[in-house]
Design brief:
CATH class of the largest domain in chain B: Mainly Alpha
Strand order of the largest sheet of chain B: 2-3-4-6-5
Number of helices of chain B: 17
CATH superfamily of the largest domain in chain B: ABC transporter involved in vitamin B12 uptake, BtuC
CATH architecture of the largest domain in chain B: Orthogonal Bundle
CATH topology of the largest domain in chain B: ABC transporter involved in vitamin B12 uptake, BtuC
Shape of chain B: globular
Oligomer: heterodimer
Number of strands of chain A: 9
Order of helices and strands of chain A: EEEHEEHHHHEHEHEEHH
CATH superfamily of one domain in chain A: P-loop containing nucleotide triphosphate hydrolases
Distance between the termini of chain A: 38 Å
Structural class of chain A: alpha/beta
Strand content of chain A: 15-25%
Radius of gyration of chain B: 24 Å
Number of domains of chain B: 2
Helix content of chain B: 55-70%
Order of helices and strands of chain B: HHHHHHHHHHHHHHHHEHEEEEE
Number of strands of chain B: 6
Helix content of chain A: 25-40%
Radius of gyration of chain A: 18 Å
CATH architecture of one domain in chain A: 3-Layer(aba) Sandwich
Strand content of chain B: 5-15%
Chain lengths: ~240, ~450
């Protein structure tokens, strides 16, 4: 068991953002967290990253997972769009947490960065400026950075937001391949319910409380699943 | 060009100022890259206004300016970050609030105590002020500390600047690093403020970063390039300020504007013909910049009409203002700054023979009915006050008429009167000259 939530709830200044969270994530799982805006997805991410402590209940980590070992892919910020940095510099910064107080990267850190650049097919973009890359390329760079930070768990926050459909599918396939080939656990927050049920092994559906948690196949049998997938499909078309 | 530089660096106080200035320019450029990208450009402006307020208070209380301003500015930096983070008042509004507030307090304190004088003007617009040696040592030590800390936190500053959320998630203490950046910025601002002026110091933070971002694409190259641009622009600005007697801070900013436009133009051209190699372009720019600065040399200076220039025309390098020389001459160039240095570092000059030209003046003090004699020139007074610049003199012979143009030679001495210590020149010669020099001096 990598992560266990036991009846956890999170609050902002007294008002509950999301409650009744009880689920387990095992090594190698691919969990997709779905739900509408304001359903508590971002709050849950903060809880998993240990940036927010639960109001009640608990979030436990197992298999020797430290909070600093989570490979996180946050949503992009406006400031990054015109940021002068090479793809390599961005990827290498994923090793930061492992440095602690030490000021400079070791040879091993650089080797790990190079390895992940190769793994995501970024060799030709290595020395390019981050702001000149396409949206999909930027996400791959950030994914490589996340991979530099972890061996166990990837946490992706809306990774396909703003990407065109073809690039979106490529990125999904890439994430699936990483999950399958390396056994890395993936937790993804997404609006895109169609792709969620297509790729994920487990689904966590939130609506300020936990609506459903279980295998994807079971989710599709539930009322919530049927209606949400139907709605999602309708709006996506 | 070489002659101008040698002449410049014959002034010991100018050498000290330039060393401190170059270090500050370097620190500001390095921190600027992060501040500009974090959308904190105005923090430098806000802190410099706080610096002005605290300098005003320090002056009023007769305390060493740096020892008051540094803690106050560091405190203000922390406060600014706290207010912006708590989100109750947005960052830009918080900066405007604190900076205008500090200026108001400073101005009120000044008007209640010393009144608006040259010192205050210098704090606003900057000048190559003589700094006392303690300040110089403190400045160099602090600037070195800023550089070392920046190098130490280089990678973390990148991570915090590029993506706070990711850095936070991987356990980096964002708040602590923001504080470190603000802390280093506050120190840099205070150190550079008296030279650049409270109104202009933030340009050292913003311009080099933006200039280098026109052409450089990597974090590392942006950092290195802005450091280089900043140092070169500062140096060119000081030289121009010296040659044309323009205000130092403004001259440095003008050079920075030129550098920015050059980099921007090169980037535009590069975008059209993608032939130029990455490195050649900025180097060519800098070379151009330097050669442009090189033009106003000896001939140009001669047109300014000046006693020391006669030496220049003959192609001789003016003698360094070495204090071991028998007679230490204060020339028309840097007259005000040199006089300032005598008042700020009197220990360096006491017992030396000093020679200079100026207007003969006298003044009778009502309090004790005694008359005092001076040789002065009109300095860059501010708001109608504090315009005279020179020394009190005592002379055994007959005094000339008021407003005669005289050359005086004498030994600098200290004397006490009514509990205060004053400086004066015990004259060995006082000559009335037919050819008058500049009565008004700017630097």
């Amino acid at each position: 068991m990598l992560i266990t939530c036991q009846d956890a709830s999170f609050a902002y200044e007294g008002s509950i953002a999301v409650c009744g969270l009880s689920f387990t994530v095992n090594s190698g799982d691919y969990l997709c967290v779905v739900g509408e805006n304001g359903s508590g997805k971002s709050t849950l991410i903060k809880g998993l990253l240990r940036l927010k402590t639960p109001q009640s209940g608990s979030v436990l980590t197992g298999d020797g997972l430290l909070a600093s070992e989570i490979g996180y892919l946050p949503q992009q910020t406006a400031a990054q769009k015109d940021f002068p940095a090479s793809a390599y510099e961005v990827v290498l910064s994923g090793r930061l947490a492992s440095r602690g107080i030490l000021p400079f990267y070791s040879r091993r850190d650089k080797a790990i960065a190079d390895e992940n650049i190769k793994r995501l097919g970024l060799d030709s973009l290595r020395n390019r400026c981050y702001r000149e890359l396409s949206g999909g390329q930027q996400q791959r760079v950030l994914l490589a950075r996340a991979l530099c930070a972890t061996k166990k768990l990837l946490l992706l926050d809306e990774p396909v937001a703003g990407l065109d459909p073809r690039v979106t599918q490529e990125l999904y396939r890439l994430i699936e391949r990483i999950n399958r080939d390396t056994g890395l656990t993936v937790i993804m927050v997404s609006h895109d319910i169609q792709s969620a049920v297509k790729y994920a092994s487990h689904i966590l559906h939130l609506r300020t409380k936990q609506e459903f948690y279980g295998k994807t196949a079971d989710y599709l049998q539930t009322e919530a699943g049927k209606s949400f997938v139907g709605e999602g499909g309708a709006t996506n078309d | 060009m070489i002659n101008t530089l040698l002449e410049m660096f014959s002034y010991a106080f100018l050498v000290r100022a330039v060393i401190v200035g170059l270090l500050v320019a370097l620190c500001a450029a390095l921190l600027g890259v992060s501040l500009v990208l974090k959308r904190y450009s105005m923090i430098g402006d806000g802190l410099s206004h706080v610096g002005f307020g605290s300098l005003a208070i320090a002056t009023a209380m007769n305390l060493a300016p740096l020892t008051i301003s540094i803690p106050v500015c560091v405190l203000a930096a922390f406060l600014l970050l706290r207010i912006s983070e708590s989100g109750r008042i947005k960052g830009d509004a918080a900066i405007a609030l604190i900076s205008t507030g500090a200026i108001a307090i400073g101005v009120v304190v000044i008007s209640l105590t010393t009144g608006l004088n040259t010192d205050v003007c210098n704090y606003l617009f900057g000048s190559i002020l003589a700094m006392n040696k303690g300040d110089v040592k403190l400045s160099i030590a602090l600037a070195a500390a800023v550089l070392v800390l920046f190098a130490f936190f280089y990678n973390k500053i990148f991570a915090v600047t590029f993506d706070e959320n990711f850095a936070k998630a991987t356990g980096v203490k964002i708040g602590a690093y923001n504080m470190i950046i603000a802390f280093l910025t506050a120190i840099t601002i205070v150190l550079g403020m008296r030279m650049m002026g409270a109104l202009l110091i933030s340009s050292l933070i913003i311009f080099p970063a933006l200039t280098s971002m026109r052409l450089c694409k990597w974090w590392k190259s942006v950092t290195v390039c802005s450091a280089a641009v900043s140092v070169l622009c500062f140096f060119a600005g000081v030289v121009i300020s010296y040659v044309y007697a323009t205000p130092t801070g403004a001259s440095v900013v003008i050079i920075n504007i030129i550098a920015f436009l050059l980099f921007w133009a090169v980037n535009e051209v590069k975008g059209r013909i993608k032939k130029m190699k990455k490195l050649i372009a900025p180097l060519a720019c800098l070379a151009l910049l330097l050669s442009a600065c090189a033009k106003p040399s000896a001939g140009e200076a001669a047109r300014n009409g000046n006693g020391s220039i006669a030496v220049n025309i003959q192609g001789e390098i003016p003698k360094p203002a070495d204090l071991s020389d028998e007679v230490f001459e204060i020339r028309e160039k840097m007259f005000v700054a040199q006089m300032n240095d005598i008042y700020i570092n009197p220990a360096d000059y006491l017992g030396k023979t000093i020679k200079y030209e100026g207007l003969f003046k006298n003044y009778t003090w009502e309090r004790n009915g005694e008359t005092y004699y001076y040789v002065i020139r009109y300095g860059p007074g501010c708001c109608g006050t504090d315009g005279d610049c020179g020394l009190e003199i005592v002379w055994d012979g007959e005094y000339p008429a008021v407003d005669d143009w005289v050359e005086c030679v004498g030994v600098l001495e200290e004397y006490e009167e009514l509990g205060a210590t004053y400086l004066r020149l015990g004259l060995t010669s006082l000559t009335v000259l037919d050819v008058r020099g500049a009565e008004y001096v700017e630097q």
